[in-house]
Amino acid sequence: MSLEAEANAIEAKEWPAIIVRPSRDEDVDAMLGIYLHHVRKGLDVLQAPLYQAPQKEDLKRRRKNMSSHRLPHLVAELDGSIIGYAYAVPFRKRPAYRYVVKHSIYVDPNHLHRGVGRLLLPALIDACAAAGYRQLIGYIDAANEASLKLHKACGFIQAGYLSSVGFKYGRWTDSVIMQRSLGPGATTMPDARSSPEPFHQAIGFGWNKGSF
Ligand SMILES: CC(C)(COP(=O)(O)OP(=O)(O)OC[C@H]1O[C@@H](n2cnc3c(N)ncnc32)[C@H](O)[C@@H]1OP(=O)(O)O)[C@@H](O)C(=O)NCCC(=O)NCCS
Fold it and tell me: Where are the domains of the chain?
């Protein structure tokens, strides 16, 4: 079954009206709105004038590129509206790291703390495992209690702690590195037939300039 068909089949169990599916071009406006809400909330007065919002066309191109190369890019849809999204990108560009992806997840501010993250993240985990990846990594602000809880609940463990790597609201902030194995993880050798494409082929160098 293709990645798209598999992800299409994922339907919310706890909240049946929510569908988790691969993103489409027409979802980009909604995803951008969700992203901008969260990123602007995290900017202080000094950073805000310097911030350049990502461009819609650029995001469309990047989304298409990712999904056509088996890098999962999912949305949560409720009654025709996009209320969250999650996607995975290469952990590192070098071929040795081709079985590892890192991810981002964002939920609409009007739908926080209602279980949307608990639907999206497992769907992303399944889609990454189905695509042949073996490890999934997230970098989470140490003060982001909701995200830390969500990741722990979805089987991630803390793999590292980076002190004072961010600067927000006049103070240094820490990041937690969370990691989860996918499918057989490191218990078996990679299967060449189900290997993800080497990153330099999959996405092209220099694509990873920003996220959304
Ligand atoms: C992190 C985020 C994706 C969680 O999504 P969500 O749909 O609100 O989370 P859920 O309702 O599925 O809850 C997941 C867990 O987090 C907990 N949680 C959710 N919001 C919380 C909050 N504000 N404070 C404390 N815990 C919270 C829930 O209780 C739940 O834990 P449990 O399963 O042990 O009960 C969402 O808050 C978000 O989009 N935040 C802004 C962007 C962001 O920080 N993304 C992650 C970057 S790594």
Answer: 3-195
CB 77 within 8 A of CB 19: yes
Question: 74 near 124, Cβ under 8 Å?
Answer: yes
Beta strands at 100-107 and 135-141: parallel, antiparallel or unpaired? parallel
Alpha carbon 109 to its chain centroid, in Å, reads: 17
pLDDT in tens, 22-64: 999 999 999 999 999 998 877 676 677 777 778 888 888 888 8
Confidence of residue 6 (pLDDT cuts 50, 70, 90): very low
Task: Quote the ligand 1 centre to 145 CA distance (angstroms).
Answer: 7
Distance of CA 148 from the midpoint of ligand 1 (Å): 8
Q: For residues 117 and 188, give the distance between their C-alpha atoms in angstroms, rounded to a whole number.
A: 30
Q: How many helices (H) and strands (E) does the chain have?
A: 6, 7
Residues with CB under 6 Å of ligand 1 are: 38, 105-107, 112-118, 138, 140, 144-147, 149-150, 153
Does residue 2 have a pLDDT over 50? Answer: no
CB of 79 closer than 8 Å to CB of 111: no
Assess contact for 21 and 83: CB atoms under 8 A.
no
What number does CATH give the domain 3-195?
A: 3.40.630.30
